[in-house]
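Contributing: when you submit paired examples, paste them exactly as shown. First protein:
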Amino acid sequence: MKTQVAIIGAGPSGLLLGQLLHRQGIETVILEAKTPDYVLGRIRAGVLEYGFVDLMREAGVAQRMDAEGLVHDGFSLAFQGRRERVDMKSLTGGHSVLVYGQTELTRDLMDARRDSGAPIIYEAADVELHDFLDGKPRVSFTKDGERIELECDYIAGCDGFHGVSRKSVPQDGIRNFERVYPFGWLGLLSDTPPIEDELVYIHNPRGFALCSMRSHTRSRYYLQCSLAEHVDDWSDDRFWTELSARLPEDIAGKLVTGPSLEKSIAPLRSFVAEPMTFGRLFLVGDAAHIVPPTGAKGLNLASSDVYTLYHALRGTYHEGRADLLDKYSEICLRRIWKAERFSWWMTMLLHTFNDDPFSERIQRAEQDYYTSTVAGLTTIAENYVGLPYEAVE
């Protein structure tokens, strides 16, 4: 087999990159280790920055997103008996975010890939990356008992934190930066109306909570929990009771409870691998970086990687600008570290750490300052809606 760009991973970043390149006449083959149902079964975030929304439109897969997505012009921060709204639209010159579930977004991209006729191979086992440092990259894999080799010009590693792409690079040529947080998020998905029209982030002495949604009839709630907790320890009744105890008084009475569709516990970590380019292999999204979900940056940060690599590849094939690919890692990392900072900061601002009294007072001061000044609110708003994508030139 031969192609121009081999894409490892059929999550949102791999599918979006494939769709964008296909529309530019650039050949791609996508390899995915799991089944389509498994990919769609991953319950993930659903807050999309305006830059991601624009990229979906450029990819020609925004029709359902635009029709069903919920535009949010602001969100609330609740702490110390107060609730403060961050008016993103007015503070950023008109920018908002769009709430649209990652499962639905992935489904749209999978449908677009199928309709395009471009190859995507699910259940590709034992994937190995070869010779990407030597200018003649190949990918080998097993499908239905047959060992297949795929020759390509470039490899895009879009296969996540545990994928084969980052594991394939020379370990003496990559540096990892990591912070692991001493708690996780217990999430519950339910077919119940959201408690508010916009997201509510809550700092409470009992622990952080987040009231989110996927639609007007489907809610997503999160609770800070110990890493020693197990999902089986949390009945629906226990979850709803604890959530109610952490809610601000002005909205607690609005909570509608119901059976959970899904419950899971996710540990929180910050992680960045540098660089993101190794010869003709490019790490994309979670393969190169992880953020705690507090700032709603995980999927959005992957999309900015896709934007950068897409434009660099388009310039390479259409304009002979191979130098653009040399800039990929540098451009991506500038935005990544800013998003890492914001996600870390939101995590420190809103979670309960049971720290010393000095640290607790500093946290209170941060909460007060950033919500009581236009400068502070603007900083939160412009980071939440997403910093601009850097031009690839």
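Second protein:
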Amino acid sequence: MADPSLALELTHIDKRYGRRVHALKGISLNVARGEVFGLLGPNGAGKSTLVKILMTVVKPTRAQGFLLGEPVGTKSALRRVGYLPENHRFPKYLTGRQTLEFFASLSGADRAWRKKRLPELLDLVGMTAWADQKVGAYSKGMMQRVGIAQALAADPELVVLDEPTDGVDPVGRRDIRDLLVRLKHDGKTVFINSHLLSELEMVCDRVAIMVAGQVTRYGTIAELAVSRRCYEIELDAASPDAFKSLGIVIRESTGPSGTGESVSAPPPLPAGKISIKGTLPDGRWTEQIGNVLRVGEPEATNVQALLDQLRAGGNVIRRVQPVQPTLEELFMEAVAEVTGDDQYAAGATLK
């Protein structure tokens, strides 16, 4: 029985190509209605394969789950989905307006609806001035804008966008982000597949990180970062003994921080610095680089005693700042967990 609160409820999506290539390894995830959900991963992780299975472009080896309350692959559910494929192509002899008219007709929208809706969509994606120019004269960014418009032409409940900002300039990316927020406010569910992490971080309610055909992390960015949130304390002067009064037990001293660390370890600081990792008497991790100390403590009230100790030792505190790892840092960590380092060989798993 499908959960009515979910737009996507996937319990097991598997895809093999022959005996050697295992592209998707039992993907399971949920996307709530009315949220913007981001699927991210390195090239070859299986993101587009998963999207194409949902859209019935690629036949799965196994597909268990629901799309808009109906089993994956059901035609009646697909009629309520707007889809922008990766590397889409439109007939070059059509104008932008004719392209939208064509795809809206394929989606089953009647003439009255198309007449009302299409001018609104052209304005929404900033293509009104170019609506009657042939697609063959469009830039890559303009093609993306028209592609997004055609995905919205039939007023879908779920909008699936495969790399929607690919080839789009910074102004266009901002416009697309604003559009995604508007779609959410209108009650639409948006499922985005992208490798542009900064774009996803700004608009997504939740994300899933895929590496080598598996979802390795899944949730809000705050949930993914909870074990790595910390406070950064910067002193006015750098001294080897500046933080001695805190009773830190040194565990290791390394080169560039962040290499081979576990989930509970501190987020990486700039490369090329000497990192002194340690532990406070109460067990919280620390990392010192020059006159900056990071403490594994997300709550402001719990760092006050440390600040008092530092002041009592004659230190001048220049800055105290909460730090949360970026989506890029969380992504690189997820890749490292699978591969053993931050390098990833593109492509599905070979046997």
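If you have annotations for the second protein, write them as plain sentences, like these:
The first strand starts at residue 6 and ends at 17.
DSSP finds ten helices and 17 strands in the chain.
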